[in-house]
Description:
The protein is of the alpha+beta class. The chain has one domain (61-254): Glutaredoxin (3-Layer(aba) Sandwich). It has helices at 10-31, 56-59, 95-113, 126-131, 135-149, 151-163, 176-183, 192-200, 204-215, 243-254, and strands spanning 2-3, 40-45, 48-53, 70-71, 74-77, 85-91, 118-124, 221-222, 224-227, 230-232, 235-236, 239-240. The chain has a six-stranded mixed sheet, sandwiched between helices. Strands 1-8 form a two-stranded antiparallel sheet. The chain has a two-stranded antiparallel ribbon with strand order 2-3. β2 and β3 form a beta hairpin. α5 (135-149) packs antiparallel against α6.
Amino acid sequence: MSTKNDSAKSAARARIAEARAAEELRLRRRKGLIVGATAVAVIVAGTGIGIAVQDSRTTSHAPYVAPAHADGTTIVYGNPNAKNTLQVYEDFRCPVCDGLEKSAGPTIQALADNGTYKIEYHMATFLDGNLGGNGSAVALNAAAAALNESTAKFKAFHDVLYANQPPETTDGFNSSAEMLKLAAKVPGLVTPAFTKAVQDDTYGPWVAKVTDAFNNSGVNATPTFKLNGQQLAVIGNNGPVTPAQYTALVDSALGTK
């Protein structure tokens, strides 16, 4: 389970920061947006060295735009009038979230599709801070662009991101080109509007609000699942629960068996 207090190794952080700086420089050159030297601050903390690159994502003054179909800072999948609510707390860079999605993901969705509960997604980006980079935020902005198309497109893209999750220390999601490549796996998702939102970080201010909401939620680890407020033990001693184990957890919480 990934926690907000995890510490990244200095070598991994340095590699991520250097790769990010190179990618930002390449993108700016391609777009003809470099007008001077990129502002780079070198921060020394403990035994590690981090490189903070001032870029359009961190200094953006873009207006706040929430994606269509968002419910404030949450994303609701399933019948919004369902009697029960499953709160899901995830970070797109979280490898344990990925393991759970690969194990019980279809069952988690099936129970929403059949009306057992609706899912409220509460997304996090804290692994960007823990490990360096921007992959969680970039992926969440792209997911917001998918949500702007429809909730179904969000869920399909959400699943594609986990199915193609890179190692958490590589920050492999920190690329608009990678987001567009993965989005092509969702039929009909890559429209001009979607592409522009991904490339322009249109929902960056909304992502910041989502991040703040997670940080103020009292949840400090991902994945965290709560059904009607009752936490489900979706990660056991042997890793993520199986589909049958997940169904049993839901039945127990709802008192159906």
